[in-house]
Design a protein that fits this description.
Layout: E1 16-19, H1 25-35, E2 39-44, E3 59-60, E4 63-64, H2 67-70, E5 74-78, H3 84-95, E6 99-102, H4 108-111, H5 116-122, E7 127-132, H6 147-153, H7 174-197, E8 202-206, H8 207-213, H9 218-225, E9 242-246, E10 252-256, H10 260-269, H11 284-289, H12 291-302, H13 307-316, E11 321-323, H14 327-332, H15 334-338, E12 342-347, E13 351-356, H16 380-387, H17 392-400
Parallel strand pairs: 1-2, 1-6, 2-5, 6-7, 7-8
Antiparallel strand pairs: 3-4, 9-10, 10-11, 12-13
Helix pairs in contact: 1-7, 3-5, 6-7, 6-8, 7-8
Length: about 400
Protein backbone atom coordinates (compact mmCIF):
# COMPACT_ATOMS: atom_id res chain seq x y z
CA UNK A 1 0.00 0.00 0.00
CA UNK A 2 3.00 2.30 0.13
CA UNK A 3 2.80 5.28 -2.22
CA UNK A 4 6.26 6.63 -1.38
CA UNK A 5 8.14 6.87 -4.68
CA UNK A 6 11.40 7.07 -2.75
CA UNK A 7 10.88 3.67 -1.15
CA UNK A 8 13.95 1.49 -1.73
CA UNK A 9 13.79 -1.77 -3.59
CA UNK A 10 13.51 -5.09 -1.81
CA UNK A 11 11.13 -8.05 -1.68
CA UNK A 12 8.70 -6.22 0.64
CA UNK A 13 8.80 -2.94 -1.26
CA UNK A 14 5.29 -1.49 -1.62
CA UNK A 15 4.12 -2.74 1.78
CA UNK A 16 3.47 -0.41 4.71
CA UNK A 17 3.88 -1.27 8.40
CA UNK A 18 2.64 0.93 11.23
CA UNK A 19 4.95 0.17 14.16
CA UNK A 20 3.59 0.82 17.63
CA UNK A 21 5.22 -0.33 20.84
CA UNK A 22 8.68 0.22 22.24
CA UNK A 23 11.98 -1.40 23.17
CA UNK A 24 12.86 -4.59 21.33
CA UNK A 25 10.36 -7.41 20.73
CA UNK A 26 8.08 -5.41 18.43
CA UNK A 27 10.63 -2.99 16.94
CA UNK A 28 13.01 -5.81 15.94
CA UNK A 29 10.19 -7.25 13.83
CA UNK A 30 9.88 -3.78 12.26
CA UNK A 31 13.63 -3.73 11.63
CA UNK A 32 13.51 -7.10 9.85
CA UNK A 33 10.64 -6.03 7.61
CA UNK A 34 12.20 -2.63 6.93
CA UNK A 35 15.49 -4.28 5.99
CA UNK A 36 13.60 -6.21 3.31
CA UNK A 37 12.04 -3.08 1.83
CA UNK A 38 8.76 -2.44 3.67
CA UNK A 39 7.91 1.14 4.59
CA UNK A 40 8.04 1.29 8.39
CA UNK A 41 6.20 4.18 10.06
CA UNK A 42 7.23 4.14 13.70
CA UNK A 43 4.78 5.82 16.07
CA UNK A 44 6.36 7.36 19.19
CA UNK A 45 5.08 9.29 22.17
CA UNK A 46 5.35 13.09 21.67
CA UNK A 47 8.27 14.58 23.53
CA UNK A 48 9.51 11.22 24.79
CA UNK A 49 9.99 8.68 22.02
CA UNK A 50 10.99 5.05 22.31
CA UNK A 51 13.18 4.36 25.39
CA UNK A 52 15.53 2.54 23.02
CA UNK A 53 16.74 6.01 22.02
CA UNK A 54 18.60 5.97 25.36
CA UNK A 55 19.26 2.25 25.92
CA UNK A 56 22.44 0.30 25.26
CA UNK A 57 25.48 -1.01 27.14
CA UNK A 58 27.76 1.62 25.62
CA UNK A 59 27.10 5.15 24.42
CA UNK A 60 28.96 7.65 22.27
CA UNK A 61 28.58 11.34 22.97
CA UNK A 62 25.80 10.40 25.38
CA UNK A 63 23.74 8.80 22.62
CA UNK A 64 22.54 5.20 22.24
CA UNK A 65 24.45 2.94 19.88
CA UNK A 66 21.66 0.36 19.90
CA UNK A 67 19.01 2.74 18.56
CA UNK A 68 20.72 3.27 15.16
CA UNK A 69 20.49 -0.49 14.53
CA UNK A 70 16.93 -1.16 15.72
CA UNK A 71 15.56 2.03 14.11
CA UNK A 72 17.32 1.89 10.75
CA UNK A 73 15.12 2.04 7.65
CA UNK A 74 12.24 3.58 9.65
CA UNK A 75 10.24 6.81 9.63
CA UNK A 76 9.25 8.46 12.91
CA UNK A 77 6.00 10.22 13.71
CA UNK A 78 4.66 11.29 17.09
CA UNK A 79 1.13 10.42 18.24
CA UNK A 80 -0.43 10.33 21.70
CA UNK A 81 -2.22 6.98 21.70
CA UNK A 82 -4.04 7.72 24.95
CA UNK A 83 -6.37 10.37 23.55
CA UNK A 84 -9.23 9.96 21.04
CA UNK A 85 -7.63 12.32 18.52
CA UNK A 86 -4.45 10.23 18.49
CA UNK A 87 -6.42 7.01 18.24
CA UNK A 88 -8.24 8.37 15.19
CA UNK A 89 -4.91 9.09 13.50
CA UNK A 90 -3.85 5.46 14.04
CA UNK A 91 -7.16 4.19 12.67
CA UNK A 92 -6.70 6.38 9.59
CA UNK A 93 -3.15 5.11 9.13
CA UNK A 94 -4.23 1.49 9.56
CA UNK A 95 -6.81 1.98 6.81
CA UNK A 96 -3.94 2.81 4.43
CA UNK A 97 -1.52 0.13 5.59
CA UNK A 98 -0.81 -3.57 5.23
CA UNK A 99 0.37 -4.30 8.77
CA UNK A 100 0.02 -2.83 12.23
CA UNK A 101 2.70 -4.02 14.66
CA UNK A 102 2.39 -3.65 18.45
CA UNK A 103 3.97 -5.10 21.57
CA UNK A 104 1.94 -3.61 24.42
CA UNK A 105 0.53 -5.69 27.24
CA UNK A 106 -2.53 -7.59 25.90
CA UNK A 107 -5.70 -5.56 26.38
CA UNK A 108 -3.97 -2.20 26.00
CA UNK A 109 -4.86 -1.74 22.35
CA UNK A 110 -8.49 -2.63 23.08
CA UNK A 111 -8.52 -0.10 25.94
CA UNK A 112 -7.43 2.53 23.41
CA UNK A 113 -10.14 1.46 20.91
CA UNK A 114 -7.39 0.13 18.65
CA UNK A 115 -8.08 -3.61 18.83
CA UNK A 116 -8.28 -5.67 15.66
CA UNK A 117 -12.08 -5.66 15.68
CA UNK A 118 -12.00 -1.86 15.47
CA UNK A 119 -9.10 -1.45 13.05
CA UNK A 120 -10.31 -4.08 10.60
CA UNK A 121 -13.65 -2.33 10.09
CA UNK A 122 -12.01 0.21 7.79
CA UNK A 123 -9.42 -2.24 6.44
CA UNK A 124 -10.46 -5.93 6.43
CA UNK A 125 -7.14 -6.76 4.74
CA UNK A 126 -5.10 -5.42 7.65
CA UNK A 127 -2.69 -7.87 9.28
CA UNK A 128 -2.14 -7.07 12.96
CA UNK A 129 1.15 -8.33 14.39
CA UNK A 130 1.00 -8.70 18.17
CA UNK A 131 4.12 -9.53 20.18
CA UNK A 132 3.82 -10.08 23.94
CA UNK A 133 5.36 -11.99 26.82
CA UNK A 134 2.67 -14.64 27.30
CA UNK A 135 0.46 -14.28 24.21
CA UNK A 136 -2.96 -12.70 23.71
CA UNK A 137 -4.95 -15.47 25.44
CA UNK A 138 -4.67 -17.69 28.51
CA UNK A 139 -4.51 -16.98 32.26
CA UNK A 140 -1.09 -15.26 32.06
CA UNK A 141 -1.90 -13.08 29.04
CA UNK A 142 -2.17 -9.76 30.87
CA UNK A 143 0.89 -10.25 33.03
CA UNK A 144 3.78 -7.86 32.47
CA UNK A 145 6.37 -9.71 30.43
CA UNK A 146 9.94 -9.03 29.36
CA UNK A 147 12.16 -11.18 27.17
CA UNK A 148 14.03 -12.49 30.21
CA UNK A 149 10.79 -13.90 31.65
CA UNK A 150 10.00 -15.63 28.36
CA UNK A 151 13.51 -17.10 28.30
CA UNK A 152 12.98 -18.46 31.81
CA UNK A 153 9.51 -19.91 31.20
CA UNK A 154 10.37 -21.18 27.72
CA UNK A 155 13.13 -23.38 29.15
CA UNK A 156 16.21 -21.61 27.83
CA UNK A 157 17.55 -20.10 31.05
CA UNK A 158 17.57 -23.42 32.90
CA UNK A 159 19.96 -25.05 30.44
CA UNK A 160 22.32 -22.07 30.09
CA UNK A 161 25.55 -21.78 32.04
CA UNK A 162 27.89 -23.96 34.05
CA UNK A 163 26.28 -26.80 36.04
CA UNK A 164 28.01 -25.62 39.22
CA UNK A 165 26.25 -22.25 39.06
CA UNK A 166 22.62 -21.05 38.98
CA UNK A 167 20.99 -20.66 35.54
CA UNK A 168 22.73 -18.03 33.43
CA UNK A 169 21.57 -15.76 30.64
CA UNK A 170 22.67 -15.00 27.11
CA UNK A 171 24.65 -11.78 26.62
CA UNK A 172 21.89 -10.58 24.27
CA UNK A 173 18.10 -10.22 24.47
CA UNK A 174 17.49 -13.47 22.63
CA UNK A 175 13.89 -13.99 23.82
CA UNK A 176 12.72 -10.68 22.39
CA UNK A 177 14.56 -11.26 19.14
CA UNK A 178 13.16 -14.77 18.72
CA UNK A 179 9.60 -13.57 19.29
CA UNK A 180 10.15 -10.80 16.74
CA UNK A 181 11.59 -13.25 14.22
CA UNK A 182 8.61 -15.61 14.59
CA UNK A 183 6.30 -12.58 14.36
CA UNK A 184 7.92 -11.73 11.02
CA UNK A 185 7.47 -15.29 9.77
CA UNK A 186 3.82 -15.19 10.86
CA UNK A 187 3.27 -11.82 9.19
CA UNK A 188 4.65 -13.04 5.87
CA UNK A 189 2.57 -16.24 6.12
CA UNK A 190 -0.55 -14.13 6.75
CA UNK A 191 0.38 -11.94 3.78
CA UNK A 192 0.64 -14.99 1.52
CA UNK A 193 -2.76 -16.18 2.70
CA UNK A 194 -4.23 -12.70 2.19
CA UNK A 195 -3.13 -12.81 -1.43
CA UNK A 196 -5.58 -15.70 -1.88
CA UNK A 197 -8.49 -14.52 0.24
CA UNK A 198 -8.12 -10.73 0.50
CA UNK A 199 -8.59 -11.00 4.27
CA UNK A 200 -6.26 -9.98 7.08
CA UNK A 201 -5.86 -11.62 10.47
CA UNK A 202 -4.01 -11.41 13.78
CA UNK A 203 -0.48 -12.77 14.24
CA UNK A 204 0.01 -13.66 17.94
CA UNK A 205 3.70 -14.14 18.83
CA UNK A 206 4.47 -14.88 22.49
CA UNK A 207 8.03 -14.62 23.76
CA UNK A 208 7.87 -17.78 25.89
CA UNK A 209 6.47 -19.78 22.94
CA UNK A 210 9.14 -18.47 20.57
CA UNK A 211 11.79 -19.64 23.04
CA UNK A 212 10.00 -22.95 23.58
CA UNK A 213 9.95 -23.54 19.82
CA UNK A 214 13.76 -23.53 19.82
CA UNK A 215 14.16 -26.08 22.61
CA UNK A 216 14.65 -29.06 20.30
CA UNK A 217 13.43 -32.34 21.87
CA UNK A 218 13.47 -31.09 25.48
CA UNK A 219 9.73 -31.67 26.06
CA UNK A 220 9.59 -35.01 24.24
CA UNK A 221 12.62 -36.34 26.12
CA UNK A 222 10.88 -35.76 29.42
CA UNK A 223 7.50 -37.00 28.16
CA UNK A 224 8.86 -40.30 26.89
CA UNK A 225 11.94 -40.94 29.02
CA UNK A 226 11.59 -38.76 32.11
CA UNK A 227 14.84 -37.04 31.11
CA UNK A 228 15.40 -33.41 32.20
CA UNK A 229 18.12 -31.50 30.42
CA UNK A 230 20.58 -29.80 32.76
CA UNK A 231 23.24 -27.13 32.37
CA UNK A 232 26.33 -28.53 30.70
CA UNK A 233 28.58 -25.52 30.16
CA UNK A 234 30.33 -25.44 26.77
CA UNK A 235 29.37 -28.98 25.72
CA UNK A 236 26.30 -31.03 24.88
CA UNK A 237 26.21 -34.37 26.72
CA UNK A 238 27.28 -37.33 24.60
CA UNK A 239 28.30 -35.13 21.65
CA UNK A 240 32.08 -35.42 21.37
CA UNK A 241 34.45 -34.02 20.49
CA UNK A 242 32.68 -30.68 20.20
CA UNK A 243 34.08 -28.09 22.54
CA UNK A 244 36.29 -25.04 22.95
CA UNK A 245 39.97 -25.98 22.94
CA UNK A 246 43.07 -23.97 23.96
CA UNK A 247 45.80 -22.83 21.60
CA UNK A 248 49.51 -22.18 22.03
CA UNK A 249 48.94 -18.42 21.74
CA UNK A 250 46.35 -18.41 24.59
CA UNK A 251 43.27 -18.22 22.39
CA UNK A 252 40.28 -20.55 22.07
CA UNK A 253 39.12 -22.51 19.04
CA UNK A 254 35.82 -24.31 18.69
CA UNK A 255 36.24 -27.70 17.03
CA UNK A 256 33.19 -29.78 16.10
CA UNK A 257 34.20 -33.30 15.06
CA UNK A 258 31.51 -35.45 16.63
CA UNK A 259 30.37 -37.21 13.43
CA UNK A 260 32.17 -40.50 12.75
CA UNK A 261 33.74 -39.53 9.43
CA UNK A 262 34.72 -36.08 10.71
CA UNK A 263 36.27 -37.56 13.85
CA UNK A 264 38.39 -39.83 11.68
CA UNK A 265 39.63 -36.77 9.79
CA UNK A 266 40.41 -35.05 13.10
CA UNK A 267 42.53 -37.98 14.25
CA UNK A 268 44.47 -37.76 10.99
CA UNK A 269 44.99 -34.03 11.56
CA UNK A 270 46.27 -34.88 15.05
CA UNK A 271 48.61 -37.52 13.62
CA UNK A 272 46.85 -40.02 15.86
CA UNK A 273 44.74 -42.07 13.39
CA UNK A 274 44.68 -44.99 15.81
CA UNK A 275 42.17 -43.08 17.98
CA UNK A 276 39.49 -43.61 15.33
CA UNK A 277 39.91 -47.38 15.70
CA UNK A 278 40.02 -47.38 19.50
CA UNK A 279 36.79 -48.95 20.81
CA UNK A 280 36.48 -46.10 23.33
CA UNK A 281 36.16 -43.56 20.51
CA UNK A 282 35.19 -45.54 17.39
CA UNK A 283 31.47 -44.65 17.46
CA UNK A 284 29.34 -41.65 18.35
CA UNK A 285 27.95 -43.44 21.41
CA UNK A 286 31.38 -44.52 22.59
CA UNK A 287 32.79 -41.01 22.24
CA UNK A 288 29.83 -39.73 24.25
CA UNK A 289 30.57 -42.15 27.08
CA UNK A 290 34.19 -41.00 27.21
CA UNK A 291 33.57 -37.34 26.44
CA UNK A 292 35.80 -35.80 29.14
CA UNK A 293 38.88 -37.90 28.42
CA UNK A 294 38.50 -37.35 24.68
CA UNK A 295 38.28 -33.59 25.22
CA UNK A 296 41.51 -33.79 27.22
CA UNK A 297 43.24 -35.58 24.35
CA UNK A 298 42.13 -32.98 21.81
CA UNK A 299 43.05 -30.12 24.16
CA UNK A 300 46.55 -31.54 24.69
CA UNK A 301 47.06 -31.57 20.93
CA UNK A 302 45.52 -28.16 20.21
CA UNK A 303 47.63 -26.46 22.90
CA UNK A 304 50.77 -27.33 20.90
CA UNK A 305 49.72 -25.09 17.98
CA UNK A 306 48.81 -21.46 17.45
CA UNK A 307 45.32 -20.47 16.35
CA UNK A 308 46.49 -19.82 12.79
CA UNK A 309 48.28 -23.17 12.59
CA UNK A 310 45.25 -25.04 13.93
CA UNK A 311 42.85 -23.46 11.47
CA UNK A 312 45.14 -24.34 8.56
CA UNK A 313 45.58 -27.94 9.73
CA UNK A 314 41.89 -28.49 10.37
CA UNK A 315 40.82 -26.85 7.11
CA UNK A 316 43.27 -29.03 5.21
CA UNK A 317 41.66 -32.10 6.78
CA UNK A 318 38.05 -30.99 6.39
CA UNK A 319 37.33 -30.58 10.12
CA UNK A 320 34.83 -27.84 11.10
CA UNK A 321 36.51 -25.28 13.35
CA UNK A 322 36.19 -21.61 14.14
CA UNK A 323 37.67 -19.05 16.52
CA UNK A 324 35.63 -17.40 19.25
CA UNK A 325 35.05 -13.93 17.81
CA UNK A 326 34.41 -10.56 19.37
CA UNK A 327 33.61 -7.38 17.42
CA UNK A 328 37.28 -6.56 16.62
CA UNK A 329 37.85 -9.95 15.00
CA UNK A 330 34.60 -9.72 13.03
CA UNK A 331 35.56 -6.34 11.58
CA UNK A 332 38.92 -7.69 10.37
CA UNK A 333 37.82 -11.09 9.08
CA UNK A 334 38.19 -11.42 5.26
CA UNK A 335 35.11 -13.65 4.96
CA UNK A 336 32.93 -11.09 6.75
CA UNK A 337 34.33 -8.45 4.38
CA UNK A 338 33.82 -10.53 1.24
CA UNK A 339 30.16 -11.18 2.07
CA UNK A 340 29.59 -7.68 3.47
CA UNK A 341 28.25 -9.16 6.69
CA UNK A 342 29.11 -5.85 8.33
CA UNK A 343 28.46 -2.57 6.56
CA UNK A 344 29.21 1.06 7.26
CA UNK A 345 26.61 3.75 6.75
CA UNK A 346 26.88 7.52 6.98
CA UNK A 347 25.13 8.77 10.10
CA UNK A 348 24.29 12.43 10.78
CA UNK A 349 25.61 12.25 14.36
CA UNK A 350 28.31 9.57 14.35
CA UNK A 351 29.69 9.88 10.85
CA UNK A 352 30.68 6.47 9.47
CA UNK A 353 28.84 3.88 11.56
CA UNK A 354 29.40 0.11 11.40
CA UNK A 355 26.58 -2.39 11.95
CA UNK A 356 25.48 -5.84 10.83
CA UNK A 357 24.02 -6.08 7.32
CA UNK A 358 20.62 -7.40 6.23
CA UNK A 359 20.04 -11.16 6.39
CA UNK A 360 19.25 -13.36 4.60
CA UNK A 361 20.76 -12.41 1.24
CA UNK A 362 18.43 -12.56 -1.75
CA UNK A 363 19.96 -12.94 -5.21
CA UNK A 364 17.51 -10.80 -7.21
CA UNK A 365 15.73 -8.44 -4.77
CA UNK A 366 18.08 -8.03 -1.81
CA UNK A 367 17.23 -5.91 1.18
CA UNK A 368 19.49 -3.08 2.28
CA UNK A 369 20.08 -0.43 4.90
CA UNK A 370 18.90 2.62 3.02
CA UNK A 371 18.41 5.20 5.78
CA UNK A 372 19.74 5.86 9.30
CA UNK A 373 17.57 6.03 12.40
CA UNK A 374 15.13 8.98 12.35
CA UNK A 375 14.96 11.86 14.78
CA UNK A 376 11.81 12.00 16.90
CA UNK A 377 8.88 13.10 14.71
CA UNK A 378 11.11 13.59 11.68
CA UNK A 379 8.40 12.42 9.29
CA UNK A 380 5.36 14.09 10.85
CA UNK A 381 4.80 16.45 7.94
CA UNK A 382 5.32 13.75 5.30
CA UNK A 383 2.83 11.35 6.91
CA UNK A 384 0.21 13.69 8.34
CA UNK A 385 0.01 15.94 5.29
CA UNK A 386 1.24 13.76 2.44
CA UNK A 387 -0.38 10.46 3.41
CA UNK A 388 -3.37 11.44 5.56
CA UNK A 389 -4.05 14.83 3.95
CA UNK A 390 -4.39 16.70 7.26
CA UNK A 391 -4.51 20.49 6.76
CA UNK A 392 -1.91 22.82 8.26
CA UNK A 393 -4.44 24.37 10.62
CA UNK A 394 -5.54 20.99 11.91
CA UNK A 395 -1.92 19.91 12.42
CA UNK A 396 -1.30 23.08 14.45
CA UNK A 397 -4.33 22.32 16.62
CA UNK A 398 -3.10 18.75 17.17
CA UNK A 399 0.32 20.10 18.12
CA UNK A 400 -1.15 22.63 20.53
CA UNK A 401 -3.21 19.87 22.16
CA UNK A 402 -0.12 17.60 22.53
CA UNK A 403 -1.72 14.97 20.31
CA UNK A 404 1.27 14.85 17.96
Amino acid sequence: MSTDNNQPGGPLSGLRVIELGTLLAGPFCGQLMGDLGAEIIKVEAPGAGDPMRQWGQEKAHGKSLWWPVIARNKKSITVNLRVPEGQKIICDLAAKSDFLLENFRPGTMEKWNLGYAELSKANPALIMIRVSGQGQTGPYAKRAGFGSIGEAMGGLRYVCGDPSNPPSRFGISIGDSLAATFATIGALAALYERNRTGKGQVVDSAIYEAVLAMMESLITEYDQAGYIRERTGPVLPNVAPSNIYPTKDARFLLIAANQDTVFKRLTQAMDQPELAENERYASHAARGRHQAELDDLVASWSAQHTMSELIDILEENGVPAGPIYRAPEMLEDPHFKARQAIIKIMHPQFGELAMQNVVPKLSRTPGKVHSPDPTLGQHNEEIFQGLLGIEDSAIKSLNDADVI
